[in-house]
Amino acid sequence: VLPGESTIYLGDTARVPYGPKSEETVRRYALQAAEFLVGRGIQALVIACNTATAHAYTTLADALDIPVLGVVDPGAREAAETSPTGVIGVIGTRGTIESGTYDRAIRSFRADADVRSRACPLFVSLAEEGWVSGDVAELTARTYLEDLVEAGIDTLVLGCTHLKPLLGRVVGEGVRIVDSADATARATSWIVAPADPGSGPPTREYYVTDDPRRFEELAGRFLGASIEHLGHVEIDG
Amino acid sequence: VLPGESTIYLGDTARVPYGPKSEETVRRYALQAAEFLVGRGIQALVIACNTATAHAYTTLADALDIPVLGVVDPGAREAAETSPTGVIGVIGTRGTIESGTYDRAIRSFRADADVRSRACPLFVSLAEEGWVSGDVAELTARTYLEDLVEAGIDTLVLGCTHLKPLLGRVVGEGVRIVDSADATARATSWIVAPADPGSGPPTREYYVTDDPRRFEELAGRFLGASIEHLGHVEIDG
Fold it and tell me: Do B129 and A121 touch (CB under 8 A)?
């Protein structure tokens, strides 16, 4: 969406997943991550994690002097504005769903929305295992989504995006899929000033808090491309 | 196994799972955890985690002045000594299996053992979701164990114990299950001096690094009993 911009990515791979962790712990970890990125000179911060957005968005937006964008509002808004009937499903980690953040965000854009949420903690593990299709993934998705489909949702917001093609098949063609990652990327273009055309080609830097080699494998699978500028950092303590 | 002994348990719930993390990170976390427990006056340490044992046993045994027991050797020894044919299966997290620790340990007790290993990272997530039986768990178990059963294992060492009843059904009656947790509890009795009969009833203290409430739910499910003396501690930094 912003091909001219440079990006600096930090994955807190030594402490993921954030999904099952408490609000207080996630907020502490998110502040440490943001401090590292601000120290690298970023002009805007995207909290590219639903759990961290749910638990730490307000804290980070208050603490930092740069624009901060969470991953919840863009998807919530797209779903609220495009759902024909207002019956909207939301799936995500336990932390995201139990916080009620999507529910509140969708109803802030559409007061009469009927939001049906379901925590789907196994999807992250399935994606990391590479089981993004096949019998186990499909049966897991059907088990999780059964109640939402029966409730008549016409739109499903993906708070976790790793299994998108499979989830589309499971809910069927009548249900629109809103990918919070896509919606957030588009929203980022509203808060970032265009890159100076004379500033040279953009760079993509990646940092992780655990061993970079394992990340390199996963990144290849998720991004469909190999990554350059990959480094290890410690952000705790 | 040691009903008269007091225990102090530390769960690093803010940073679990250790399974997918690198050796260096797991070693750093395990040292922080051991320092906390030694500070509480323990007389022996059980590393009750296969990944931490695989990556950090030697480091902890060298660093501490008290007996240290990992969870790998007891199960490996029981399997090596009781397997009729020596064709032994091992399952565990990615870290446990990729380290080759069980393979080496089993062959140290029985040089001609034919060890077949399989990383099963989804089992932890299934157990935490409470899906310890049912279609998804069973299909996942069959997918993971297919090759081991076909290889003719007569003994299966559980490096992760949460799905024991299900795994027993999946491998069938011809395969002995060795639970590394049970074997470790028995081995602990060799390294701990009997409690002084005059020292009063034993205590069971639990500490976690994330919010204790979530742990209380899971502990109830796993232990089949509610827990007393539960506290929150921070061990990083």
Answer: yes
User: Is pLDDT at A237 greater than 70 in this prediction?
Assistant: no
Quick: pLDDT tens for B139-177: 999 999 999 999 999 999 998 766 888 899 999 989 999
Q: Which of B121, B126, B211 sits opposite A25 (nearest CB)?
A: B211
**Degrees to nearest 5, angle at CA B162 with B158 and B167:** 60
pLDDT above 90 for A236: no
As a whole number of angstroms, the distance between CA A105 and CA A97 comes to 12
Distance from CA of A230 to the nearest CA of B (A): 16
Look at A134-138, A220-224, B100-104 and tell me which has the smallest mean pLDDT: A220-224
**Burial of residue B29 (number of CB atoms within 10 Å: 0-12, 13-18, 19+):** buried
- Write phi, then psi, for A154 (nearest 5 degrees): -110, -5
Q: Do A139 and B136 touch (CB under 8 A)?
A: yes
- Contact by Cβ (8 Å): B163, B144: no
The confidence score (pLDDT) of residue A89 equals 97
Question: What are B230's strand-pairing partners?
Answer: B206
Tens digit of each residue's pLDDT (9 = 90 or more) over B102-124: 999 999 999 999 999 999 989 98
Task: Catalogue the long-range contacts made by B22-28 (C-beta closer than 8 Å, 24 or more residues apart).
Answer: B22/A14, B22/A210, B22/A211, B22/A213, B22/A214, B23/A211, B23/B55, B23/B95, B23/B99, B24/A211, B25/A14, B25/A209, B25/A210, B25/A211, B26/B51, B26/B52, B26/B55, B26/B56, B26/B95, B27/B55, B27/B56, B27/B59
Residues B143 and A136: beta-carbon distance below 8 Å: yes
CB nearest to B22's CB, from A20, A21, A211: A211
3-state secondary structure of B135: helix
A49 is catalytic: yes
Which residue has 């046993």 as its token pair?
B57
Kindly give, in sequence order, each residue whose CB lies less than 8 Å from that of residue A193, ignoring residues fewer than 6 positions away: A43
* Active-site residue (options: B30, B127, B157, B160): B160
A15 touches chain B (CB under 8 A): yes
- Omega before B67 cis (within 30°)? no
**Is A214 an 8 Å CB contact of chain B?**
yes
At residue A236, what is the residue type? D
